[in-house]
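Quick question, first post here. What does this chain look like in 3D?
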Amino acid sequence: MDYVSVGTSFFQRIWSVTGNLTGEVSSCVLCYTEANKGVSVQIVRHPGATSGDGRISDMAKLPIGIQSFENIRHDGYLYVDKTMYIQKLLEDGKVYFLSRPRRFGKSLLLSTMEAYFRGQKELFQGLSIEKSENQKPEEERWISYPVMTFSLSGGDYQSPMGLEDTLASCLENFENRYFAKGEKAYGKTLPVRFGNLIEMLYLKSGHQVVVLVDEYDKPLLENLSVNTQQEERNRSLFKSFFSVLKDKDQYLKFVFITGVTKFSKVSIFSDLNQLRDISLSEEYAGICGITEEELTRTCFEETEKLAGKTGWSHDECRDRLREMYNGYRFSSGERKVYNPFSLLNAFADGRFGSYWFSTGTPTFLIQKLQASRFRPVDFAGGVRATEHALENYRADIPDPVPLFYQTGYLTITGYDARFRQYILAFPNREVRDGFVESIYPYYFNQSESYGAFETDRFIYDLDHGDVDGFMTRLQSLLASVNYPEGTAPYSEHDFQSSLFIIFSMLGQVVRTEVHTAIGRIDCEIEDGNLVYLFEFKVDKSADEALAQIDERKYAQRFRASGKTVYKIGAAFSMADRNLSGWNTEKE
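> Answer (accepted):
Ran it through. Tokens below.
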């Protein structure tokens, strides 16, 4: 299918046909289908403001960093409709938990839920849930329920009273919103006060109460591996505070809890009646993030503008967006989503930048990786985890995979139904490259700025086919690898991880453990019309490594491409912890 962008003048000519549409129109897609030999028109609208007079609007503003559904709808920001999921949640159950990485729209989702349950009908004009709501009996439409939203993204949770102060402030805000001055829910402890407030809201309104908890795990993550005593204190407060929900079930309409991780020891999950964890549910895989279909339907004009700035075609721009920001999967199904934060920033800046990593990789994640048996190269090739491991994180287990998945550094790339295991790897280039840059200083005794300088010199060698220059520079860099005191690398695997970090810093198309018909090559790099094939041997000769490339015909699949292939057999010395030699052949 080919896409053609047309200007607003086109709408003047077709407005008589589409005059019954409401909402501001900013672009149109013409779809030519070979089967019908004709053109169909798809109107792409940015929902929000209405235009009964047929006025044509400019491109919608991008809601970068805006988490208020009300602000997005009132101020004409672009909005990707997710309200159909709210309706489905109400049909399927009552108490839910959802885990998604940071900057994936969890807070906006809860803000949308809050607006819906408060009966703010005007904000949902033209959205999916409006139609389903209007099909209900009159007395059941747009009911205003009491809503208690706990946003835990802010607060000093490393201080002894930080979490308690935040929860107390939330309860006070609810009292000020729903009750007259001086009318409060009393209780000697926060849990008792919380329970009494739920009952009071129910009795005052005549409707059950909605409880929304955003980023429940922030008070725990902030203390993870930093202040275990405070982490346990916060965990204990969670247990007593939110266990109230179980006893007040009859007064509750809907409960929805979000976070990055699901800590298995937090009783908030074991105490709630009929809690459903939808984090790995296929039917809710698109509840956060932007799907390919949503990008086409809602962001066509933004993509056209980005393509114009980069000098690429629309299709080339889509391919690049897909490579950089797509690839997240949250179920065993095939549905993938884009990181919305990165996607919107790319549209705003007119370039394909690295946005998700602007705040850096948390130190505790790197420490978790270094203390485990995993190496960065494993994440590129794919690691396995059970559903139970992904859903229930425990800080005392050394396996870093669940935490790296829940925080968004890994995503599902496949599912082995026989063993009921998920296969996980980096979701896209933004995550892979950003992660490698973050861990570079921890593996090499050099700063990131020096690493960037070295990267340019490595790329120059690759671009010019200077294998000896490249390998000599590599030898120097490997000499700076950080090894724990009293230890030494024990296999090719360790060296491959160091090489993977270096090669990934280069931005080249690097693949490790590449399977062929009769073997598996250690590392492969494609740089334009040049291909580099590496085979590494520990405490063996470079000749043996080079001979394996020839014996297993690793270069054969490139011969028809017309590309120049460099075969490099490299030897490592366990005693020296470095390259001891290399041989090169050119095809």
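The domain at 69-284 is CATH 3.40.50 (Rossmann fold).
The CA atoms of residues 195 and 244 lie 6 Å apart.
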